[in-house]
Please model this.
Amino acid sequence: MLADSHCHLNYKGLAEEQQAVLERARARGVTAMLNIATRESEWDNVLATAEREPDVWATVGIHPHEADQHPHVDTAKLVERARHPRVVGIGESGLDYFYDHSDRGRQQASFRAHIAAARDAGVPIIVHTREAEDDTAEILRDELGKGAFSGVIHCFTGTKTFAAIAIELGFYISISGIVTFKSARDLQQTAAALPLNRLLIETDAPFLAPVPHRGKTGEPAFVADTANFLADLRGENVERLKEVTARNFHALFDKTTA
Model:
């Protein structure tokens, strides 16, 4: 068992040879892949892959970079699409103050709409946050006060403090191939200390290919390399880490087990 909790199979670099990409992942033991949407125009294609492939599931959502371009995508629209049995999560959504491609107020409003959709649809939210830890934590706390919802902080590169807050709020932490980079010492220390029962692994393919694939187009098969690195980093048996993180994936995205 090995799950890639976050990939973009319909992005350039993977879409052109999607079937071969999937077969390479399966050959390395990947049994589940979550295909993430970032703009409304992707939803149908992302879902079509999930409908066709039994080990691939889909999300619907608007990336914070795209928030300015999608003011019409509200909670109701997200909930409606999340009724599909192959749509197992809402997102990715969140806050990105590093690039600021969308107005911060618009990002925050979109993030809250996605959280409400996750709550209403009973599926997890996939959270993107960059240079926005304080506002992300504040919004998550505030929204949890309105009613329970679950989720994951994807491609985690934040502080130990933010990791602790996310876990306290009931969230999972997903680690990408960034953890294998020589420059990622702080992240490695954080990843080594995360509780195993809250850990997920992802590729964010076609981005962030881990060592020894740096410079290549990322793909879900590479989640195995990140798992190997994490197991060594944490002093754990790699097969156990793969199995537990896959179980965590299915526990969080529980529509995958229906």
About this structure: The CA atoms of residues 206 and 218 lie 4 Å apart. The first strand starts at residue 3 and ends at 7.
